[in-house]
Amino acid sequence: MDFLTAPLAIVTTVIVIVILVVAAIVFAIMLRTWYRTAGADEALVITGKAKRDQTSTIKVVSGGGLFINPFTQRAAKLSLRSRSIEIKPTAQAENGVTVDVEGIALVKVGSNPDLIRRAAERFLSQDRAIEAFTTEVLEGALRGVVATLTVEKLMKDRKALAEQIAEGIEGDLERQGLVLDSFQILGITDQGGYIEALGASEIQRVHREAETARIDAQRAVAKRQIE
């Protein structure tokens, strides 16, 4: 009898172990599927409803994780990293000169949950649209500002020009959940040679002033010698 019960006990033990192993694997898979995490530079956006009696909502988790209901909820990640956007639109200055203004911007989805929700509503399924939207807004604002200034004023203070453009688009970006980290004007050029002529005349003016200062100094020295 012992010879018969011993193999049965072994088989039962093996079956129990197999069942436990399978259950552990299934649990691990379910845990991996149901528990979602977001890194420090991204946000986890959960849409849908957690319970049957709840209305559909958008929940945001940054730098953490939570369990989701795969039957009633969907989870997607939205990057919070800064994006470098280069622009070089053609614009017309107040005095009628057509110029090419090269600039670079750093833009990102805001870290505030409200800003993340706004960005998720528009950009969650089309992440690259952030660059396209920001480029369109920047170029439109730049053309509007350039049209109010002469080329001489544009060349005088690029930093002030960049700040004016940045302030002008801040509200438009924020309504879409975006934040402008920085914007800089890299260069201003034209195809007609107007800016080059300005540079040449400026060099001539500096040379004239330097020559005048040299002559005045020589006269002052000669006067002191005479005295």
Give an overview in words:
About 4% of the residues have low confidence. The protein has 227 residues and is an alpha+beta fold. The strands form 3 sheets. Strands 6, 7, 8 and 9 form a 4-stranded antiparallel sheet that branches. It has 6 helices and 9 strands. 52% of the residues lie in helices and 26% in strands. α3 crosses α5. It is elongated and about 125 Å long. The protein starts with a helix and ends with a helix.
- How much is the average pLDDT? 78
**C-alpha Rg (nearest Å):** 33 Å
Distance between the termini: 139 Å
How many β-strand stretches?
9
Please estimate the helix content.
Answer: 40-55%
Shape: elongated
* Biggest sheet character: 4 strands, antiparallel
Q: Number of DSSP helices?
A: 6
Elements, N to C (H/E): HEEEEEEEEHHHHEH
Unreliably modeled segments: 201-208
Strand residue content: 25-35%
- Helix and strand content put the structural class at alpha+beta
**Oligomer description:** single chain
